[in-house]
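Researcher: I'd like a structural prediction for the single chain below. Treat it as a standalone chain; there are no partners to consider.
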Amino acid sequence: MTQLNWGIVSAGRIAALFCQDLVHSTHSHLYAVAARKQADADRFAEQHQIEKAYQGYQTLFDDPKVDIVYIATPHNFHFKQTYAALMAGKHVLCEKPMTVTLDECQILTTLAKSKGLLLMEAMWTYFLPAIQQAKLWLDEGRIGQLKHVKVDFGYPIPFNAQGREYNPQLAGGCLLDMGIYPLAIADYFLTSDINNLYVQANVCETGVEDDVIIIGKSDDVMVSLATSFQCRLSNNAYLIGDKGYIVIPDAFRASQCHLYHLEDLVDSFTDKRQTLGYNFEADEACKLILRGDIESQVVTHNCSLLFQSQLARVKALI
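Model: Treating it as a single chain, here is the predicted structure.
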């Protein structure tokens, strides 16, 4: 069985969760990790039984045995690191948001195509079985004509002016950090861009937003989104039609969804997975590479460009 060697960029929390699930990905082999400090890379490699531990990311990019790179650093570093990995001839799965500007995203997608390399934003939510089941119900007409999409995602993050979340020099703010989820989840179920935006936000003392509400319209569908560093939101998604509605609890990491007609629960789905769910996006990346494809049809380059366009338009209204 063909296995691809993964190089992990970062020894942080998200990288650890990804590696925990990667062992359940059929065509994946955890081969190398890189961190800013050798001690951190060594510790991470020992914890996850990784063969190579590098200080500095370019060393990992230059390793000829690395097939695909997973970039899990803070998003303000994504552009530079993804660019370097692509230039070194590596396929890339990059955490969301893939960049912090639309121009950066366009540069990366163009570069990946010119190099014949896979570049995919790690929108793991799109590959979760419960999200895909909700989409199937919607497409089957189980809730009739879609009328409203409501999604929010927020967790309280203690204020720290120098911390990544609140530091404008590090692309801080809840919109890029957490708001990417409501926008992307809404986009998965909508058939056109969200327009006629109305935004309300709270801006904290460092000048970044820590609470945002977004209202818009996609064709005839009303869209209501929210994100926050101030409090835990419901973190659910609601797809409301003229014949019923779908509830997706904890939509960003969804493991179940429920279908209602008025007050009556008429169908439910639970995926019963044994992983967090990151293995599904890894499976997609490996499948595409082994097939010779350079773009996912689930998280397309156009999806990533749309996310960046929407983030920029919301940001301009804060």
